[in-house]
Amino acid sequence: MSSTHHHFNYIELPASDLAAMKSFYGKAFDWTFQDWGDTYVAIKGAGVDGGFDAASAGRAPSNQGTLVILHSDDLIASEKSVSDAGGVISVPAFDFPGGRRFHFTDPSGNELGVWSPTIEE
Q1: What pTM value is reported for the model?
Q2: Which of these, 61, 73, 89, 121, has the minimum number of CB atoms within 10 Å of its CB?
Q3: First-to-last CA distance in the chain?
């Protein structure tokens, strides 16, 4: 059995509007959610457990801190899905060694990225 000691376990995003966050991430990435009271929502189906926190003890949505990056099998489709769901593309897709990615902001103002590896032919 492999240890999970010191592995990332949970990602929590500050949220100014839980309904808007659930709508956006549900439409963009097909995530589902579990409500825990009026100020917290758990994220299901994102690969790592996480949540949206509307009572985030002074933490505010940001594009200035840690960047959470999601993996995509089809970056073009993911970028369209983010835009169609109401996300704002903050950094258009760009190449980097080994892949390509874009950044977006969600309805609360958190910035995340989405990347795909370069496919060798």
Answers
A1: 0.90
A2: 121
A3: 36
